[in-house]
Fold this sequence. Notes:
heterodimer; A: alpha+beta; D-amino Acid Aminotransferase, Chain A, domain 1; 2 domains; 7-stranded antiparallel β-sheet; 8 helices; 20% helix; disordered C terminus; B: alpha+beta; 3 domains; 32% helix
Amino acid sequence: MDRKKICDEYIVYEHAFLNKMFLNNNYFDRESGACSANCIVSDKFYFYLFLKGLNIPTPKILYYTRNGKLFYDEYSHGDEISTILSHDMDAFAKQFDGQLGDGAFAIKVQDSKVYVNKELVSSTDNLLKTFTTANYIIQERIIQHPELNKLCSTAVNTIRLVTLITPNEEVIAVRAGLRIGREGSCVDNCAKGGIFVGIDMNTGKLMKKGIIKPPHGKIVYQHPDNGIVFEGYEIPFFKEAVELAKELHSKLYRIHSVGWDISITPNGPMFIEGNSLWEVSGTQAAVGGLKHIEKYFPELGKINASPF
Amino acid sequence: MRFRFVKICLKAFWLFKNKSSIENGVSYYPDCNHKSKKQILKDQLFFIRKYGDYEPFYFTYGFDRSEMTRERMTSEYLVPYNNFQTKINFLNNHTPGFIYTSRVITADKFYFNVFLERFGIPTPAVYCYIKDKQVLYCDPRFEIDSQKTANEQLKQLFSNDMDAFCKPSSGQLGNGAFALKVQDSKIYMDGELSSVDKLIDVLFSANYLVQKRIYQHPIMNTLCDSTINSIRLQTVMTKEGEVIPFGAGLRIGRKGSSVDNWAKGGVFVGIDMEKGMLMETGFLKPGYGTSAKEHPDTHVVFKDFEIPYYKEAEKKAMELHKRLYRSHSVGWDIAITEDGPMFIEGNGWWEISLIQAAHGGLKKQIEKYFTV
Lengths: 308, 372
């Protein structure tokens, strides 16, 4: 790794590159001006509604609490937060503005009994307080494909796929990887000890190297908990996931680049969320340099004069 | 500071250069006592000195009336026009409390439809959206094979009977819009027999939305039957997340015109928001007229003309804005059909001018929500 190789192949100084994603806030549709679709990708509620409207699979939102009230619910029961626990559900609650899986937990209601992360809750007061003090989205739980369950059964192991729109208004799929959780953890986020493994875009199979971020950080070639070797492990419905992401991005033509989180269910891909501030670090570490896409990210000063 | 001084000098220079048009505007209140030409010019200079800009709607607001003192103009009205328009735009691009605004949902006609359908708010159904000569979206009910070419997909779509309205997705003032009717495989564009190839050529010439055509309530037809006469209603979200409606008005088209826009000669009449009835005076753009108490073509008297479903329209606009919590203020265009209100579009850059002309100064009522 001499300096030339590093500079030619890798996008270095990630913060500067993240700044370039300013393009996502100021993405000019040639005709209609500066209204970016960033909020549709970044707002979990709008993301759900948009995908639902276009018949693209995404986990159903059962409840959405906002400013201490029930803002949206599947059953239209008014705005009392306590109604959340009145229906049976097998769901996943996450903070509306949450990042990196913070504050996320599994919630189950069955025969009036409430379970949080599989443990029976004796008093629901604290739980309801949680939903009142922060904005929460409660989504139907995702049942992942058995092949992905084998890799880690306690977390939903998601594909992270990046797509972008070229100046010719063509959507291209840049890179994909799989984020695999650690046994016992309910999220697959790399910041929570998850493993990031590159996916071969042509074959849809896992690549050799898995990256665990610091402070847990190291390179692994098989899952530390179950010993499954990554290389050649086939991701079901991978091609379908890529095609669907491209179709979705073509409809979200007012955003420049998106990092999609996609789970694979027994019936096919399901879109969990989109990220307009996706990171290059994990994929560059696991798969190699991404310098070839830098041409699609003009310098900040040149954006207004950009060909977009 | 120096920049402001230069700006004021430039504006004042411009004002003197256009002195005659500034002084000789046509009064909207011919029966009142008027200020002298010199006084009008002085008022405008006062605005420039105080706010850095003149007031282009001076006559529409009736500032030329003797009773309009500087104190009244500045304490009751949001002046000058351009300064307030900048605030509306800024607050919708930097919605307080959010990094990403939902302005795109009202600005993009396709997204507007997708979201309103999901919110359960009535809006004209989109049959098809053509972008960059591709069929980006087609109503699944038509079962169009998306693997085919765009041309083949559209031919398949237009083999179905439909009563539709086509409009460019970035269109303004009704430019490029036309009514489309398909009956027994015959294509009619704005009532004239055409062919599917000609239709596709037109649809490929811009990004087009093909929507289900709407028909307005018969009572709205009595005002003007050649256009959809739409309600313009503004809503603003307070810091506490409450939605406040204000400044409702009705835009009424002119005979033979296909749009109700003021810029194309339409009449703007304020709506009494308590009663859901038209106010007394309608406003026309200079060149098309000034004020009117009745419609110039149909002679329907405006005062106390009841707008069907007005209250429901207001309620739905508030419900909708609550869902679009990332937008600070929106100007809604709402048509009234026999079944109730139907949302045509939302504007993140609505105009303060006509609603102040119709309702009088709105400064005390809404300025507190527009602090930058």
